[in-house]
Amino acid sequence: MGRLVLASRSPQRRAILEQLGVAFEVVVSDAEELVAGDPVEVAVENARRKALAVAAPATVLGVDTVVALDGVVYGKPPDAAEARATLSRLSGQVHEVVSGIAVVEGGETRTASATTQVRFRVLDAAMLDWYLATEEWRERAGGYAIQGRGAALVAGIEGDYLNVVGLPVQALLGLLPELLRGEPRPRA
Amino acid sequence: MGRLVLASRSPQRRAILEQLGVAFEVVVSDAEELVAGDPVEVAVENARRKALAVAAPATVLGVDTVVALDGVVYGKPPDAAEARATLSRLSGQVHEVVSGIAVVEGGETRTASATTQVRFRVLDAAMLDWYLATEEWRERAGGYAIQGRGAALVAGIEGDYLNVVGLPVQALLGLLPELLRGEPRPRA
Fold first, then answer.
1. Which of A28, A161, A179, B16 has its CA 20 to 30 A from that of B116?
2. Using CA atoms, how far apart are residues A22 and A16, in angstroms rounded to an integer?
3. Residue pairs between chains A and B whose CB atoms are closer than 8 Å
4. pTM of the full predicted structure?
């Protein structure tokens, strides 16, 4: 494995690689993304497009995360009204968070995906008001951030937590087990 | 609910309350803790002792988190050898992380607990060496920190993620639903 390039603007994904002590750089190129279809196919194809859009002599990692309920993909809500509508649909339900990852290395592309079940509390109007006022719904698939105030909305999960934050660490280690090699430094 | 006092030194617990936007202070008094017994009883009793040890005209929150496998409670390993032994026992298994919480308010004490299942990857000697070298096992029940490099050890969880970090948020909101009241400030 050469140097690692993360093909994502997401600060959450950067934070997860830092949490693991992985050295990486960020290079992002625009790629047209699918917004509808089978959740796993959408996430994996978008991850592949993001990774392939970056031309670098490196190991390039593309990632895409979508929220799906009853087979419908929920992306980033465009405004507060849509965020409220999405969160109302997720209220009291179990939805899926699906991430696709693509690793491009020396002309070869490998992909994987991970799915985590997320069970939401029943959200009453006061809870929706409280959460929407945090503004966290912006730029978040499904309109919530589990690593932020959104933790208060989540009754429980089943699967990889970091997948819900935005990077499926176990799937990534499956594709790149050498990611953790090297001398780790103790965290502060 | 008056002002909230967290009766814990844990930086992880402070970080979780901050994540939720809750205003609080930290006041810690020493309390003798149970180290063996039924995991739920141990965690709840220790949480109660920690909360009752703090004399403050406030809502006092005590929390204790233990790791249990096959009914055996694993505390903080005293040294690297014991950390390796604990992690070896958890390797490839599903263990329970149990937190007890106690809220003391105006002479009344209410308690709750939460249990999250954590499934570990099979850890080979290289993975154990890698993880022990991070020094994260220090001061952590079960010898790992899921919010740190320890995320690489965890195949998946079932339940409340923040309970594994050290504060069962949903159980806490059950005891103190008013915790989220007030004007939230957007996170940076």
1. A179
2. 9
3. 97
4. 0.92
